[in-house]
Specification:
single chain; mainly alpha; 51% helix
Length: 68
């Protein structure tokens, strides 16, 4: 998101916290086997699409989220 919205911002790295996961085994394999799910875009494409959608719908979406 930073790369799309404000690439000039620096990234500050902090020490890991006790509850942070060092590795992940996230996978959509079971969803594919169970219901035939296949991703239609990469995470980068999805983030770009979301940012575009948010910017186009911010006027009505932001008050909705803030009031929930």
């Amino acid at each position: 998101m930073r790369d799309q919205l404000a690439p000039e911002l620096g990234i500050e790295y902090e020490s890991a916290r006790e509850a942070d996961a060092e590795h992940t085994h996230a996978s959509v394999t079971k969803a594919g086997e169970a219901i035939g799910y296949e991703p239609s875009r990469t995470i980068t494409e999805g983030v770009c699409e979301f940012i575009e959608w948010y910017q186009a719908n911010r006027e009505w979406y932001e008050p909705l989220v803030r009031s929930s």
